[in-house]
Amino acid sequence: MTAVTRYEFDAHLNAVETRLGSKFDAYLEHQKGRDEAFQERLHQVEERVDLNIANMKKDVGEIKDDNKTMRYWLLGTTVTTVLGVASINASMLSNMKTFFDSGMQAASRVNDSRTQSASAVPLSETRNKNAVSTNSDQRPIPNAAIHQE
Predict the structure, then answer these.
(1) Count of alpha carbons within 13 Å of 137, Cβ hemisphere only?
(2) What is the pTM of this model?
(3) For residue range 51-110, what is the model confidence (pLDDT) as tens digits?
(4) CA torsion angle 101 103 105 106 (round to 10)
(5) Distance of alpha carbon 112 from alpha carbon 120, whole angstroms
(6) Alpha-carbon distance 119 to 113, whole Å?
(7) Rounded to whole angstroms, how far apart are CA atoms 4 and 6?
(8) Is residue 135 within 8 Å of 141, Cβ to Cβ?
C-alpha cells in the first residue's frame, strides 16, 4: 500500500463533497417540489372548507327563516288547540247543566205529584159522592135518589 498524498486526499474529499452536494441539492429540490405540492393541496382544501362554511352559513340562515315561520305555525296551532279544548269544555258543561236541570224538573214534577196525591181525597170517597146510577130506561139517577130508596 502506498501512502496517500495530501493532493490525492484533497481530490478525493472534493469528489465526495461534490457527490454529496449534488445528492443533497437533488434532495432539496425534491423536498421543495413536495412542499409546493403540499401547499397546493392545502390551498385546495382551504378553498373547499371555505366553500363548505359559506354553504353552511347559508343553510343556517334558511333554517332560521324556517324556524321563524314554524314559530308562527306553532303559536297558531297552540291557540287553536286551546280554543278547541275550551269550547269542548264549555259544551260539556252546558250539557251537564242541561241534564242536571232536566233532572231537577223531573224531581220537581215527582214531588208535585206526591204532594197532590197526598192532599187529594181518596178515590173511593170521590166515587161515592159523585156516583150516578141509571135506571132501566138509561136515564141518570142522582146520588141522593139512590140513597132514599
Answers:
(1) 1
(2) 0.37
(3) 999 999 999 988 888 888 888 899 999 999 999 999 999 999 999 999 888 888 888 888
(4) 170
(5) 12
(6) 10
(7) 6
(8) yes
